[in-house]
Amino acid sequence: MLREYSSVRRLLVAAGAIFLLGSIPVPIEVVFAKQTLHAGDRGYGFLLGAWGVGTVLGGTAFATLGQMRLMRLLGISTVLMVLAYAGLAVSPTLAVACLFSALGGIGNGAGWIAAVTAVQERIPISTQSAVMSVLEGINQLMPALGFIIGGAVTAATSPRDAYALSAIGVAIVVIVIGMRPIDRARLSPVAQDPEKSADISECAPEKARNSSVNAQELVPTARTPPLTSL
Predict the structure, then answer these.
(1) What CATH number does residue 161 fall under?
(2) What is the pLDDT of residues 201-211, one digit of tens each?
């Protein structure tokens, strides 16, 4: 199925790379808080709490910015994560680290929802469970690999280097996607189920997610893939 939707395939690959690289600092946060910042158990709790608060704010921002295009929102969220990891890598105090941790939580909270929604909007209803299973599998596997890398980097050098590696890696993914955007279209609502609309598979330009598309405005075709890629 993914062979027919190149944009969804590219989106899953990008998400997998971000999951992997973004998970590198997760297992070493306790070392970073206690040994690098000398903040103790309480400092570690503040660091995690700041990320959690940011995640809630990110989810709220996603709901508030409903008119923004998903791919743009996903890009902004990822950039926030890059800035957060880079800031954590050079944070001199716990207070500064908590600010950057909250920033990363905002990017993570909005970015995850945007990624899931972007995938769902680009596949028919009949394939939702299969494709979302792939995304969930990526979400489980890639962080595990990231944890291994983060632990190895921290053992070899320092927690700051793990944060820096994560920031650089995610930044590279953002640059690659920016040079060649994943797509500028989403699946038309009238073509959500091929069995019900087999002769309509044209893709409509992505507008606000709550906008509607009239079937009369689409060009009937039985062979055009229901997705436009750049």
Answers:
(1) 1.20.1250.20
(2) 334 434 434 44
